[in-house]
Write a structure and sequence with these properties.
Radius of gyration: 24 Å
CATH topology of one domain: Rossmann fold
CATH architecture of one domain: 3-Layer(aba) Sandwich
Order of helices and strands: EHEHEEEHEHEHHHHHHHHH
CATH superfamily of one domain: Response regulator
Shape: globular
Largest sheet: 5 strands, parallel
Distance between the termini: 69 Å
Helix content: 55-70%
Length: 335
Amino acid sequence: MQFDFAAQPLRIVLVDDDEDDYLILRDIITNISEFAVEIDWASTHETALAVLTRNEHDICLLDYFMGKYTGLDILKAARAKGCQVPFIMLTGSGNRSVDLQAMKSGVEFYLDKNHLNPFDLERAIRYSIERAHILRALQDLNSQLEERVADRTQQLLQTNLQLENEIEVRKKIEEEVRHLRHERERATLSQIAQYPKTSLTAKMLGMRTLRESEPDTFKTFVDRYDTLLELAMEQIAYRVEHHISTQLRELAEAMGTMRLSPRDLVEIHQTVLNTKNVNITPEKADTYVEEGRLMIFELMGHLSSYYRNFAFNVSNRQGRLKGSDPTTDFLGEDT
């Protein structure tokens, strides 16, 4: 049964062995006005695994320091037992290496709990849930379409036994398999752009996609992405250097300042491909799909890095402001 975020509160589990930290974090969460919440607390490694493996929560806020265990230990053990709950890692150390290690382990977001506030936490929860839904949709769609590819390939192989010209049959098989693979990619991206759970999350948080809320800005990003795709094609065809990676990084930074979500990127990518794949040869359409796939994955990587760096810099800046002495700042250290 599909979860209705508009009718039910968001279910959050806090994993922290310090009761005082749990109470502080609970108060911050209850001050988020954008959605209602139900909060559970797990204070030990064993309790956390038992709760997480039931997959009854929408998000987990996981403390990095858990006695003799770390939050990463709990995350890996929970994933090994089939846990699909998205994670936000919390730590009081502000350690950059812990941030990177957490992201590589599959954590959706990372926050310094010494500088938490309802605004940053709401944004992290919203982003983490939407990202987890998109990744889950990708996995489900890829599995279904891979089965279709396997079934169709088997049918074509059986047909091959009935045909007289083996070379021609092999060409047909290869063409069909290639077509199904590209169909899988196009269908996957199209389904993500219209994924119902993502829409429900947006509805719950009062958010709309960029296409819906700012169509002119959406068109501007579509045009920029379209231009980059054409430059990438030209770079392949004529062996010229257009520095596509640099331009993708700059585009990701522009998208980051507008707080675009992964769903917005997919809609931009799909819009460009739909306009390209009209009245062109299958070979050229395949080239657009292949090059576009590389571009959107690189663009998503740059955007993810932008958001991680943004969150880290905000935490550092807040830490410096909290620890500064206004008198010393004004007069200087030597008076």
